[in-house]
Amino acid sequence: MKILSSNNKNFYNELDKILDRRKVVDRTTLKTVEKIIDDVRKNKDKALIKYEKRFNGNSRIIPSKKDISKAIKSINPKIKKAIDETCRRVKDWHLRQKPKDIFYKDNLNNKFYYKHKAINSTACYVPGNLPSSLIMSATPAIIAGVKRIVLCTPSLNGRLNGSVYYAAKKLGIKEYYSLGGASAIMALAMGTKKIKAVNKIVGAGSKWVALAKKKVFLEGLCGVESANYGPSEILVIGDSFTSPDIAASSMIAQSEHSGDNLAVLLTKDKKLIGKIKSSIKNQLKDLPRNKIARKSLNNYGAIIHVKDDRKIISICNHIGPEHIEILSKNFKKYLNKNLIAGSVCIGPYSSMALSDYGPTQHSLPTISSAKFSSGLGVKDFITQTSYNELSKKGVAKLGKNGILLSEIESLIGHTRSIKKRMEKK
Fold first, then answer.
1. Rounded CA separation 381/301 (Å)
2. Does the annotation mark 409 as catalytic?
3. What is the model's pTM?
């Protein structure tokens, strides 16, 4: 883990070295993804089954009702209750996001309005053991009014994850595909004999999945989220009143996802730095995923000594992280500073790890994409269409400006089209 000081004149260069390593696309991975996509394009279901057998030990891409029922029955009733409660809370939160149509009539009796409508279909891609990811992806689609919602989740050695399928049942999803990786993304985007194509694919996945989603979007095959959903990130703000164990636990929690997660702590208190380093070392000892967490912290972990609050805000917004936890005593002073982040947890009781289970979203922008995008929401499953209804008086008045502007833009076809309306009796 790097220990940096914002007073160092090369500070931002040192910080960017850490950040930029996570933005580099591995050419070998990209070539592999392109090869898989082309194979599925050409060989369709035959290619799908080949990759499922190779990577997931699975030969059945559409699970049977019997296997689903068996997987669901194996779940602890307490887990079912936890999923039920999470579904309820996430739904309650997302119901507040429904957009409203807009209608406007000007003084010339021209009418302008926006109408919102749900997209026809979406696939929720869910890593094999994460029911919370399905709840987060599917709930806003349900509230938006999407009629066809598909679960796509890989099995492990042919075994279905009962908690994911129980969540699907609870959400009312009835179409399932036991698929994973880049091949699954291409099948959902293009469609095959067994897999019906969708309008949009959402949900987190591996780097192969993330690259495949970008590829099918660029080809115009289907839509994906506007944010960059890559490896997870957390930035913690601490001071002399911050519990080192709580701060360390947050950094470790974010680092245990995979070996390329970012965990950064900012503090004005030099004494806190040593305490957190020591706490991280102790907490890692008995962590089941300690090898993954160590790799992340060694490569993408940093504790930064910062001289003042203004610099803290500057560094936060330079990174634009997925998550921020404010663990300092006077946390309110940061809340009116327009922090750039996918999600902000405020105060010592607000854990990023707990926020992953709702009610707010955990499908959030990473790799600095919080600077221009937001977490998944109802809006991501709705299209907005504008309507223009001009009156005779309106076109007579507005048409004059339209003619002038179209003429200076050398769009004479536009000019003539406007004149035709103005001349209509």
1. 35
2. no
3. 0.90
